[in-house]
Amino acid sequence: MYKSYTMELAGRTLRVDVGRVAAQANGAAFMHYGDTVVLSTATASDKPRDGIDFFPLSVEYEEKLYSVGKIPGGFNKREGKASENAILTSRVIDRPMRPLFPKDYRNDVTLNNMVMSVDPTCRPELVAMLGAAIATSISDIPFAGPCAMTQVGMIDGEFIINPTQEQWKKGDLNLTVASTREKVIMIEAGANEIPEAKMIEAIYKAHEVNQTIIKFIDEIVAEVGKEKHAYTSCAVPEELFAAIKEIIPQEEMEKAVFTDDKQTREENIRVLTEKLEEAFAENEEWLAVLGEAVYQYEKKTVRKMILKDHKRPDGREITQIRPLAAEVDIIPRVHGSAMFTRGQTQICDVCTLAPLSEQQKLDGLDEHEVSKRYMHHYNFPSYSVGETKPSRGPGRREIGHGALAERALVPVLPSEEEFPYTIRCVSETFESNGSTSMASTCASCMSLMAAGVPIKKMVAGISCGLVTGETDDDFVLLTDIQGLEDFFGDMDFKVTGTTDGITAIQMDIKIHGLTRPIVEGAIARCREARLFIMDNCMKPCIAEPRKEVGEYAPKIIQMSIDPQKIGDVVGQRGKTINAIIEQTGVKIDITDDGSVSICGTDKAMMDKAKELINIIVSEFEEGQVYVGKVVSIKEFGAFLEFAPGKEGMVHISKIAKERINHVEDVLTLGDVVKVVCLGKDKMGRISFSIKDVKED
C-alpha cells in the first residue's frame, strides 16, 4: 500500500514515500527533501552466513551523475567505482546504525542509497542517512532503532541546521550528529578551530532536532512497519563459558592479557587457546565457536579490570599517554618527512609539493567542489600488525583515516595566494596498536612544517576510549586507547585541534549511545592530551614551519599579466609557451585572471622564463635595451627573436657604425646581440638598432 508522509525540517519539506517503489526489498523509503531524491532500501538474507564471527553489514551510497545532469567521462560512459565522498558517506551511515543491530545477528544486510536528483539546497548525503534509518526501521530486519541524523553548519558564529551545499563548504563547521531517543550515537565533524564549549552546544542542538525526526519515524513505523523476523542466534553457549572458566581461571586470563607488549599478549592468548582446543577436541560444536568464546572471555576480563579496578592492560594510569617520540627529515631528497611514535603505533609521513596545476580534479555531485589542493593519503600494510596478505590498494578504512587527518589539517593551511602549491601528504603505517589516524595527524603536521609549508598553527590529535557498566553513571574514560582497549571498549572518540580549538572529530561507538557527561568528558580529556603531545613531543622536534621549502622541492615565482595578453604568451596551439618551457625546463601555469606561476628547481632558469614572459606581454618602448637572437637575414636587414613568438627587425643601416654592403658581413644566423628600441617608424612598425646601444 502506497503511503506518503511529510514533515517540516529546517524550513524545507521532507517527504517519505513508502510502498511506491522497490516493494520486494525488506524495507524501502523513497526520500524527497526539496528537489533532492534518494531511494533507500534495506535487505537481509534469509539465513546467517556460515563460518563468520561478525555481523556482515554492507552500506552503499551510489552517486548517479544524471542526478546533476552530467554524463560520466571515460570510454564506457558508466559510473565507475565509488568516489571518496561516496565511501565517506557510507561510513557515516554505517557507524551509528551498526551497533543497533543484534550482536548475535549473522544474516547479510545491505543498506543501499541511490542518489537520483540533487537540489543544492538539500544535501543528498543527509537525505541518504535519514533514508537508511527509515528503511531499516520499517523493515522486518531486527533493529533497535529508530535513529536520526542532523547536520549543523556555522557562519559568523550562528548555527545553521541542515545547511545548503554552499553553506557547508563556506562555513566554519561541518558537523553530523546521529541520535537515538535518549542518546548521541555518532559524531563526525570538521571545524575551523571551534572552541570545545561551542562544539558541545552544536552537538546537542543537532540532538534536539534528531528527536523531532525520530517522532516522525515512529509515526511511519506505527502505520507501515513490519514485524521483526526471528533469526538464528550465533551467541556463544553459556555452558562453553562455564567450561572454559573451569580450565582457565579468571586470574590466569588476567595474567595473559595484562602486558604492555602486543606480541606477548597475542602469544599468551594463543597458548591458552591451544590448551582449550585440546580439552574440547571431541566436541566439534564447541570447537566451531571456541575462537569467539576466548575473545569474549578476554573482553570481559579486560572490561572488568578497567571498570572496577581502573587497571589498564599495559599498566598505565587512566589519563596516561603512551611513550612519545618524534623526528623529522628521516627520508632524504623528499620535500618533507616526519615520524611520530606513540607506544606501538608508528607513522612516517612524507610531504610533496607541486604546482597548483596538479590539484586533484573531482567529478562528483557537488558543483561547489571541483578540485582539491591538499590531499592526505593513508596506507595500512599488513606488516604493521604482524600479518601477511597481499596489498590490493586502499580499502574504506584507509580512505576514511586519510580523510580524517586531511580534515584535521585543512583549517591551518595557508591560502593559495600565500603559498601557491598543491600539497600531498602520505602517511605510511610502520606499526599499529591503536589510533593510527591520530598519529597520522601529528606526523603530517610535522611533515608539513619540515617541508616549509607555512601552516598557521600546530595540530595534534588523540583518541579517548570508554568502558561502561550497568548504569549511565558507571563509566571510565581512557586517554590514548591502544588496540585492545579499542576492540573491547565501547567507544573510539578521536579529536584533533590546535591550542585554540577543534579541527576534526570522529566518534565510533559499540553501544546504544552516550550521555552528555561522557561526551563532554571525552572532549575535555582529548584537549588536555593533545596539548600535552604538542608541548612535550612535537614542539621539541620542530616548533614552527621552516622559512623556505626544501632543496629538492620546486620553487615558484608568481607574476601577473594583462588577461588580454594570455593568448600572446600561450601562442597558437601552445607553441609560444611550450618554447619557453623547452628553453628553461620550468612548469608554467596561467589562470584566466592573468596569474602566472613559474615552477622549477633552477632559480636562473625560472628568472629567465619570467623575463621572456615579460618581454612577450610588454610593449617595446623607445630606449629599452633587449637581447635578441638572429633568426632571419634579408637584404634590407635582420630579424631578431627576443622571446618565443616575439620578433623585431634591425635595418641594415642600424647594424654597424660604419657602412656595410651586406648584412652577412656582420651578422650570421644564431648570433645573440644587444639592441636598443628606436620607437616606431613611419609605417608604425617598431625598429631596433645595434649600433646605437650604449657601451655601459
Automatic annotation (TrEMBL):
Known function: Involved in mRNA degradation. Catalyzes the phosphorolysis of single-stranded polyribonucleotides processively in the 3'- to 5'-direction.
Broad class of the protein's primary localization: cytoplasm
Ranges where the S1 motif domain occurs: 623-691
Organism listed in the record: Hominiventricola filiformis
Catalysed transformations (reactions): RNA(n+1) + phosphate = RNA(n) + a ribonucleoside 5'-diphosphate
UniProt KW keywords: Cytoplasm, Magnesium, Metal-binding, Nucleotidyltransferase, RNA-binding, Transferase
Matches recorded under Gene3D superfamilies: GHMP Kinase, N-terminal domain, K Homology domain, type 1, Nucleic acid-binding proteins
Name recorded for this polypeptide: Polyribonucleotide nucleotidyltransferase
Any one Gene Ontology molecular-function term assigned to this protein's record: polyribonucleotide nucleotidyltransferase activity
GO BP terms, alphabetized: mRNA catabolic process; RNA processing
Any one GO cellular component localisation term in the record: cytosol
EC number: 2.7.7.8
Organism lineage: Bacteria, Bacillati, Bacillota, Clostridia, Lachnospirales
